[in-house]
């Protein structure tokens, strides 16, 4: 591996960006492929499949045998709201391989007793996300029903291109939310990305069932994400 390729891979991993080191098994030459790069031919399709699956392996592309070594940032879920739904969601997310953080400034809800062993931050999202910014490998799940808490991280998630953005609430509640976010300068294309009502429609009723529906929708969004649109939409 060339030194500059190793440096490029390490830089991508440090910046939470997806990258593939493609090695030609015939002559040993290699190249670095970043997510969203236009390649053309069979290699583009093979790289896209590898980015979505996260699995390394050998592929045949454009008459060559290549080994694609895939490096994906660990996908994570940021939950805004230490509510009943968040408790089973935290457990399920860990089993599904997601890092998960819960943010809620309401100290009556955000207690270690309710979320033992979970990355729990009892502070305002505006303050937390300054040091722990959202990115394209983050799913944002807003479940507090409180605009003072939910709206800022929702806007940040849309602006930074989170692969999933979901918000709890009825259609009436969501319509009011859309009005607020429009007034804050968020464009229609970005607003259409918000999953609301949140979660796949499986008829979920209990907090645990709603958590299942949310996690299923997060996984669906991750595996079907648009590799060409890793950044956020301009308002």
TrEMBL record:
<protein>
    <submittedName>
        <fullName>XdhC/CoxF family protein</fullName>
    </submittedName>
</protein>
<dbReference type="Pfam" id="PF13478">
    <property type="entry name" value="XdhC_C"/>
</dbReference>
<feature type="domain" description="XdhC Rossmann">
    <location>
        <begin position="77"/>
        <end position="218"/>
    </location>
</feature>
<dbReference type="InterPro" id="IPR027051">
    <property type="entry name" value="XdhC_Rossmann_dom"/>
</dbReference>
<dbReference type="InterPro" id="IPR052698">
    <property type="entry name" value="MoCofactor_Util/Proc"/>
</dbReference>
